[in-house]
Amino acid sequence: MRVNKLTALLLSLAFLGCNKDKDPTPSPKVEVKDITFNFRLDPMPAATEKFELIVSQKDGEVLLDTLLAPRTAHALSLKSADDKFNITTIYSDPATNKYALRTYIQVNPDNWHIDENISYSEWGETERATIHYTNAPYWDGIQFTGKQGGTFGATYSGGSIILKYQRLLPTDLTYLLLPESGKYIFAEITSPETHVDFSHASTAVKRRYTKPAGATDFISILFGYTKAGDYRKTMTLTLSGPGSDYDLQFPTTMIEEFETRLLYTDAEGYRHTYVHNGATVPTEMPFIAKSDFTVTKYEANDFQIKFGENKPNSYTMVWNSEDTNLDGKWNIYLSAAETAFKPKDFLEKLNAKSLKGKSLAGLSLNSLTSYQAKDYTHQSMQDYYNTPELYLKKALREYRTIQRYY
Question: Residues 142-160: pLDDT tens digits?
């Protein structure tokens, strides 16, 4: 029997339609999870009694908005399909009414303890002391430090350097370097008046670094620690611009760990800082001639940035608002994957309780700093700075920052 072609076509289409209804392609199922994390913020003004914490998704949806007590660990929970979030904290200084805002873009904040007053140093009691360095050459420049730093005054008379400073009690350790002669001496100070024979001084090691073309305003800073891993007492071994034949001079005795900081401004006006922590002073530093970023737009609601070959792990923007309605500073922490941002829209979408009725009309970019460290990511960089146990151990051993003001 012959079947009409039109009838066959209609039957075929009907069959396909039935199959489509019976076997639809399943859409991916979004799994909403229970998320818990611990969080603590210690604001700089001790009188701050509360801060606002806002957790939002990448799409801007607010998942949590709550007022919390500072200097206390909080166990928090929310529901989301995301693993990383935008974390914003807001508080105002009760003395000045200035607002302080922080926003971390796409991070996991679990076990963060943001301490705005964190410090390596422990300060001890001191007293006025005088050191007589006998058999010393006349000096043209001097580098001196005790274990607690501070100011000093020095004069030269009859072959002796007479130096006055505040010594740490009960026992201090001092370091004197005469850069011109390249000689240094350590001395243990146990009384208000001490005589030290400088003829026993040792010869310092010199370092000179090859700088990129166009680099200016070079500064070298060298800190020393008499016990590796103990950063409570810092001795400044070098703090100067370059000398005639060196950038750094440093001792070969007494110091178990060095922290080297080298800074310069590149030809386009970006300020570079290179940091190295270790048992030795590096012979070379990984300088780069140009900034690793270029900001192409920095309007209040249109920020755009480009990165070069030496891409950073993370960067921080500081936005100021000096409007009479909202006087404050906003730090925003982002990964190099984020090349565009709308600050005004972002803040307005949060609809923060603390900023109710406040205008964002005066928002402007103040500065931007990039961070680069080998084997670090945006997440691990923020973990480092917001975990006091890591920060106080200087677990980040070598890194660079590049900064530009706008």
Answer: 999 999 989 999 999 999 9
In whole angstroms, give the CA distance from residue 108 to residue 378. 11
Would residue 18 be called left, alpha or beta, if left means φ above 0 and alpha means ψ between -120 and 50 degrees?
alpha
Residue with tokens 């008499």: 226
| Encoded amino acid at 15, one letter | F
Decide: 333 and 102 in contact? Cβ < 8 Å. yes
CA distances from 33 to 30, 76, 301 (A): 9, 14, 32
All residues at 6 or more sequence positions from 316 whose CB lies less than 8 Å from its CB, including other chains: 331, 332, 333, 334, 368, 369, 371
Which residues, 6+ apart, have CB-to-CB distance to 12 below 8 Å?
none
**Secondary structure (3-state) at 245:** coil
The span from the CA of 349 to the CA of 358, in Å, is 13
Helix (H, G, I), strand (E, B) or coil at 174: strand
Cβ neighbours around 337 below 10 Å, total: 10
DSSP for residue 275 = E
pLDDT in tens, 23-34: 566 666 778 999
CB 71 within 8 A of CB 40: yes
Q: How far apart are CA 286 and CA 353, in angstroms?
A: 45
22 backbone dihedrals φ, ψ, rounded to 5° = -80, -30
- Provide the 10 A C-beta neighbour count for residue 346: 18
Per-residue model confidence (pLDDT) at position 90? 98
Q: Choose among 319, 328, 324, 309: nearest CA to 369.
A: 319
Are β-strands 183-189 and 152-157 bridged in parallel, bridged antiparallel, or unpaired?
unpaired
Q: How many residues does the chain have?
A: 406
Residues 131, 211: Cα–Cα separation, whole Å: 38
pLDDT tens string 252-298: 999 999 999 999 999 999 999 999 999 999 999 999 999 999 999 99
Q: DSSP assignment of 36-105, as one string?
A: EEEEEEE-SSTT---EEEEEE-TT--EEEEEEE-SSS-EEEEEEES-S-EEEEEEEE-TTT--EEEEEEE
Residue 193 buriedness (CB in 10 A; 0-12 / 13-18 / 19+): exposed
Q: Give the chain's radius of gyration (CA, Å).
A: 30
Omega prior to 26 cis, within 30 of 0:
no
Question: Contact at 8 Å (CB) between 151 and 129?
Answer: no
Extract the tokens encoding 201.
């001084």
